[in-house]
Design goal:
With 415 residues, this protein is an alpha/beta fold. The protein has one domain: Glycosidases (TIM Barrel). The protein is built from 14 helices and 13 strands. The strands form three sheets. It has an eight-stranded parallel β-sheet. The protein has a three-stranded mixed β-sheet with strand order 6-8-9, with helices on one face. Helix 2 runs parallel beside helix 4. The protein is globular and about 55 Å long. It starts with a strand and ends with a helix.
Length: 415
């Protein structure tokens, strides 16, 4: 497994802080207020200033790949126009330092931090955003394409559509239900446009990172509900990217223009799977406008977030992907992790990661990225959930490796 990618993942908004520094503009998440106890990410892990310390932690951990995201508002403060030089300089230093440390930079171009001005113009409901994303991608690729090893244009588009625009749990907080579906197509189109731009800049490897969940019917009679949910959560994003088509159940609901599917469907060098838990569904009760209802999964232990711990679901999901898409490129697990309480001793996290790593290896993956290197700002949950291999004291910014950090180091080293 000499070429296996042992990694950790983070995202810019969740760790960088420094909202008012370096010419960064505001994002949709800066103004999203329904967050646990009014927490905000204005400081977060202060990674903008402490990145050398964080790279030193990765070196100590022994990873050979680091998946981070580039903040669109830091590079292009309004989502339009020329690059902000200070923002690009920050990522230039980070990428150089990673390369010097022997850690492959894995860059995500969009991890949910849409520039606020673009959202005011309709955000992902507006087809124009795909053009703006292509322009932004070109600005980043001009500077970094020669050194970034793997590129991921869009992280978890399903979560942007479902949580951001359909049910309002994430920024920008829209509750459009099925009227949110155009955002899925525009996110997929932005992916395709970014792949074109990255290829034109001779990017070394381009893939994606989709959130996937096995959809389990509560009873055999509930299979249509599970299939409907899987169409919206899984196949609405995987199918057009991998096969140039949308699931029949949703295709007529999308604003597809001539040539769009050719743009979206391009060869990829890898396919990223973000997996946390399965989902159980039943047919909807009377008055429910959706074709499914979620059902609790009670037979498994749970994380601090209340998510069922089912490692076999990861193997199942990758198997389903390969069955549905026989030409699936090499798979990396681009996120895998869990939240548990704040302690340095974290046997629950070790057990979780051990089970999921074994499930990933059983599915013959080519890389595994733990979410996350650091405790961070966990979106609508604020600082109430901690995913880090490294504990962060958000008052002092002291970083303390957890037991899971040392466990992962031993796994990587073969010890």
């Amino acid at each position: 497994m000499s070429d296996f990618l042992w990694g950790v993942s983070t995202s810019a908004f969740q760790i960088e802080g420094a909202f008012a520094e370096g010419g960064r503009g505001p994002s949709v998440w800066d103004e999203f207020t329904p967050v646990h106890e009014n927490h905000n990410a204005s400081v977060a892990c202060d990674h903008y200033h402490r990145w050398p310390e964080d790279i030193a932690l990765m070196t100590r951990l022994g990873v050979n790949a680091y998946r981070f995201s580039i903040a669109w508002p830091r590079v292009q403060p309004t989502g339009r126009g020329p690059a902000n030089a200070e923002g690009l300089d920050f990522y230039d230093r980070l990428v150089d330092a990673l390369a010097d440390a022997g850690i492959a930079p894995v860059a995500t171009l969009y991890h949910w931090d849409t520039p606020l001005e673009l959202e005011a113009r309709g955000g992902w409901l507006n087809r124009e955003v795909a053009d703006r994303f292509a322009d932004y991608t070109s600005l980043v690729a001009d500077r970094l394409a020669d050194r970034v090893k793997l590129w991921i244009p869009v992280n978890e588009p399903a979560m942007v559509t479902l949580q951001g625009y359909a049910i309002g749990e994430h920024a920008p907080g829209k509750t459009l239900l099925f009227d949110a579906l155009p955002t899925a197509h525009h996110l997929n189109l932005a992916h395709g446009r970014a792949v074109e731009v990255l290829r034109s800049h001779n990017a070394q490897a381009v893939g994606t990172a989709n959130n996937h969940t096995p959809a389990w019917p509560a009873t055999p009679d509930d299979l249509p509900a599970a299939e409907a949910y899987s169409d919206i959560h899984n196949w609405l994003y995987a199918d057009p990217v991998l096969s140039g088509r949308y699931p029949d159940a949703v295709a007529d609901l999308l604003p597809i223009a001539e040539g769009d599917l050719r743009t979206i469907h391009q060869p990829l060098d890898f396919y990223g799977v973000n997996y946390y838990n399965p989902t159980r569904l039943k047919l909807p009760s009377e008055g429910n406008p959706l074709p499914f209802e979620l059902v609790e999964i009670d037979e498994y232990p749970r994380t601090g977030f209340g998510w069922p711990i089912a490692p076999a679901g990861l193997t199942e999901m990758i198997t389903r992907l390969r069955e549905r898409h026989p030409s699936l490129p090499p798979v990396h697990v681009t996120e895998s992790g869990c939240s548990f309480p704040h302690a340095i001793e974290d046997p629950e996290r070790i057990s979780y990661l051990d089970g999921h790593l074994k499930a990933a290896l059983a599915a013959d993956v080519s890389g595994y990225f733990v979410w996350s290197l650091l405790d961070n700002f966990e979106w609508e949950a604020g600082y109430s959930q901690r995913f880090g291999l490294v504990h962060v004291d958000f008052e002092t910014q002291v970083r303390t490796p957890r037991d899971s950090f040392h466990w992962y180091r031993q796994v990587i080293s073969g010890g």
